[in-house]
Fold this protein.
Amino acid sequence: THTHTHTQVKWETEWWQAKIKKVKVDKSTDKIEKVYVSYVGGTADEDEWIAYSSKRLRPPTIGFTDTTSGR
C-alpha cells in the first residue's frame, strides 16, 4: 500500500512535506482515487483528502525529513 509514504503537497505557492495516512481505491478499476495526507509539523485539523491525480501532489525531494513522531 501507499500508506505512510512520504509525499509533498502544494498549498498556495509552497510545497509542504506530508505523509500519506489513508488511500481510497476505486473498487471497479482498482486504481487510487484519493489520498489522505498529514502535514509534517501540522495539526490533525490540517489533514486532508487530495485527489491522487492532483497536481498538488509530488514525490518528496531529497531533503525530506519525517518529523511527525508517529502522527
The longest strand covers residues 14-26.
